[in-house]
Structures are given as structure tokens and as C-alpha cells.
Amino acid sequence: MFEQLKEQPADKILMLIQMYREDNRTNKIDLGVGVYKDATGLTPIMRAVKEAEQRWWGEETTKAYTGLAGDPAFGDAMVGLVLGDAVSRDQVAAVATPGGTGAVRQAFELIQMANPAARIFVSNPTWPNHLSIMKHLGIEAVPYRYFDETTCAVDFAGMMEDLGDVKAGDVVLLHGCCHNPTGANLNMTEWQAVIELMNARGVIPMIDIAYQGFGDGLNEDAAATRAVVSECPEVLIAASCSKNFGIYRERTGLLMAVSHDKAGHKVTQGNLAYLNRQNYSFPPDHGARLVTMVLNDAELRADWQAELEDVRQGMLGLREQLATELQRVSGSDRFGFVAQHRGMFSRLGLAPEIVEKLRVEHGIYMVGDSRINIAGLNSETVPILANAIVSAGG
User: Fold this and answer.
1) Which residues are catalytic?
2) Would you tell me how many other CB atoms lie within 10 Å of the CB of residue 136?
3) pLDDT in tens, 298-328
4) Whether residue 73 is found in the same domain as residue 28
């Protein structure tokens, strides 16, 4: 049987990680992997998470399963964090998942169950795993223009023109904040236009929100998602705790299905639990438990928010520094967009040959489309990157 298997294409980011590890240069810089790192290159355990973990170690009395949907308290805490008071809790069906990726996968499968003919409109570019999972499931992905390679800003006119092809029953996949891989976000006026288009066409929004708190603040980063759920009849939301709680390896996420028709809530919740059962039965609990403890304890939550704000401000500072340094060494403001982007990523608009030159000649690793992880920098490496980009012809 196994001889019938075909070799799968290598993941470009994983290949980049391996190349970086095998590079013996001491001055190399890793801007490829999409993980938050502090100025020392460490992905730290947040103070509040560490404290919650220590408390839970003393309190935990069993390792028995929680439930197919996970601990209800986790769902309540995360719905509150992401949606606030945009909708009532009884309008939201929710299940815990193995990370945000698990939530995305379950959302796609729910779409298939509800409407096998549904097409999913996806920003070009988007997180590569979106497309990979859809291809694996046999879902038709339809790209819509999103990023203007010349201005490195949102191509909103192109986006709206392409979304003009949606039909009732289709799904539009949107990034709630801190767009991956570009860092370019819609403003609220643009979000409102997208909402009106989707409602007029009978389209279901699906929001992937993986970086809440990394952009403009916890509530600010959730504002677009809250506007969508308050105005659209049905919405799917995949939320990740990997970044804003720093618990990547705990694989902690939540899938939410919002409906203004409360009568169907029980059926939707049952279908989400059914999908969990088919894919992995019971979701992991440790990370979800820590998140719940942090969000429900006033002292822990305040400390978590303070540290998260420090992380956010640190990345904004690096953006400002990089944009300023690039302007200084290039004599041009063409990289000014870096300071306007939000989240961990920016797409610099460099040609692939420039990206390769940066790797070979300068030991600077970024994804081939010139996406960089801002958190891979520190105040000392920013000037190094800026000078390398200009000297490489960027």
C-alpha cells in the first residue's frame, strides 16, 4: 500500500528553518519563522501564564477528559475576549480545537457539511495553510485581490471588484487583524463596505483571528470581527491563543459559529462537537485551562494585558525604527509602509532574487515573497537589515 504514496511538496517555511539551522554564520538573522521572539531571540513564557501553570499544578486532581467541545469555561472566556458584547453568548456555538489551525480545519469541514458546493473566497496572498487545507479537503478556493505590490497597501478596489463575483452560499475568508503575510489591514470604513456586500449577496463571512493584541490593542484588533458578527446573520470565527498567550506548543484554539437565529444554536453546537469527535475526539485542555485562568482572574489578566501591551509596543517600535533606517540609508520613503503595517509580519515587496541575495550574501532569512517577521529583529539588527536591503538592490 505505502508504495502508492506520493512525495508531498516541501513546506517552504520549514525548508527555510532548516537552511537557517544549517547556516554556520554567527551573524545570521532569522526573519522567516512566524513565532514571536523577544530581543534576545527567545519566545518567552508570559508571566501570567507561568503563574497560572504553577497554580494549576497544585490544583489539578485529574487528567480525565473534559468534553467534546472542551471546558465550557474556556469557550465562555474566549467568546468574551474576541466578541465582547457584540452578540449574546447564546448566539455562539463554540468548540475548543488544537490551535487556530484546528479551528480553521473544523470550520472548513463544517462548511462542507452545510453546503458541499460552497466556494471560499481567499485573499491573495493569505496564510499558506488556508489554501493547503482547502486543497486537501477538495474545497474550491477563489482568490480575491488584496495586496498592492507597488504600494504595499491593501488593494481595496481590486478586492471589492473580485468579491463582486460571490454568490449566495459562498464563504469569504477574512483576517480579523494583522493580516498574514502582508501586515496590511482594512480600515473600518472598508470593513463596513465588505459587510454590506456580503449581506447583500447572502455570503457567509469566516474570520481567522490569530493575532489579537499584536496590532492596535486587544479591543481595537477585535473591532472588525465584532462589527461583522453584530451585522451578519451567520459568521464563523477561528481564534488562536498561540501568539497573544505565547502558548504555541500547547495547541490552543477555539472555533465559534455565530447565528442570529437562536433556534438553530443547539444543532450547530452538536455538529461542531460531532466534528471534534471525528477528528480527534476530545481537544487538548492544558493550554485552554491556562487561558481560562488568566482571563478569569483579575490579577493575572491585568499582568497578561500589561505584558501583551509591552510586546505590541515593542513591535511597533521596531517597525518605526526599520522604516526610519530604511529611509535614511536609501534616501527614499518607499518603505514607509512598514510603520503602517500591523502585527508580526510585513511584506516588503522585494523581488525573489533580492531575497535570495540577502540570504546568500548577508545571512538574512525571509520567506521568498519577502515576508519578514518583525519580531525576529531587535534594535541592533534593524540597521543591519536596512543596509543589507539597500546594498542588495532592494
Assistant:
1) 127, 208, 210, 243
2) 10
3) 999 999 999 999 999 999 999 999 999 999 9
4) no
